[in-house]
Amino acid sequence: MKDSIFIQNIYYMLSYAYKVLREDGYRKLCFEEFENAVDLLSAILVKAVSVQIKRGLHREYLEKTEKIGCVHGKIDINESIKTMSLMKKQLVCTFDDFSINSYMNRIIKTTMLILLKSDIKKSVRKDIKNLLLYFKGVDTLEIGDINWKMRYDRNNKSYEMIINICYLIIKGLVQNEKDGNMKIMHFLDEQRMCRLYEKFLFEYFRKEYPEIRVSSPYINWDIIGEADSMLPIMHADIVLEYEGKKLIIDAKYYKNSVQRWFDKPTIHSSNLYQIYAYVKNMASRYDGEVSGLLLYAMTNEKVVPDNEYVMGGNRIGAKSLDLGVRFEEIEIQLNDIVRNNFNQMCK
Length: 347
Description:
Layout: H1 3-17, H2 24-27, H3 37-55, E1 60-68, E2 74-75, H4 77-82, E3 91-99, H5 103-116, H6 122-132, H7 160-171, E4 173-175, E5 182-184, H8 190-208, E6 213-215, E7 218-219, E8 234-235, E9 238-242, E10 245-252, E11 259-261, E12 264-266, H9 269-283, E13 289-297, E14 307-311, E15 314-321, H10 327-341
Parallel strand pairs: 10-13, 13-15
Antiparallel strand pairs: 1-3, 2-3, 4-5, 6-9, 7-8, 9-10, 11-12, 14-15
Helix pairs in contact: 1-8, 3-6, 3-7, 5-6, 5-7
Protein name: 5-methylcytosine-specific restriction endonuclease system specificity protein McrC
InterPro entries: McrC (IPR019292), McrC_bac (IPR014407)
Keywords: Endonuclease, Hydrolase, Nuclease
């Protein structure tokens, strides 16, 4: 897999996952060459934060306590006496401040400061320093204490992609114990890439095939009586439904796409059991045809999954998606999946 092509494809994957990247202001990034994923992500972050600054940085009401010369909010009598602020004709007051020091702005500032400690392009470093001027009243966070679970509404929806880019950047950096500088990993790790890979596939099918119903449903167990809390939850990554057919796609991004059994390459057994359970339990409550597909990101292994079986009356396959080719070729691979499973359709 050529690194430069793979990095460029990360941009395309992100552009499907976050449609804002398909806007004119971001498109030129897809033509630039980046040495690693964090260079790409930092360039996206700079552009996104610049756009957000023009719109206005998010503010929220935060409780603030300070000595002031007039009554504002709630007076803290005990603290005013303790600090003898009355002698200076001041009161200790607690009040709500409509502040730029919001939690999401703290994450952004923390991420930009981390990037300044890493080996990134000089032009990006300069841009980040300029952007930090707008974050003077914003605190920073400890990396390990950041809470990434955010709620987005119409007031802060524009922050969703920015925070997710911050997440990918921070999780793609490792601490250098000797001098405190940050080292850039050549690729984002499996867990982070798996999330992006799954979101990319979901949004690709949803955008390119509007006639197909694309969902990520929970699947009920086919049991008599009510399911109890001891049964594991079945949550499908992607389900495509069209004219009485359903295809369950389980996105897999592993360093090794096959397991070894006495030196013989086989499909990961847990993956196969999982997709089989999804298919059979969904089929029990659906009148049409249900199929399953384990879709692995292709690795450099000599043998990669490329199989299809009929199990218990249902088609179940394991395929590999090559992300190391031009994006046009990735599109062909994905379109073939649709064509092979919904043969009435053809792109």
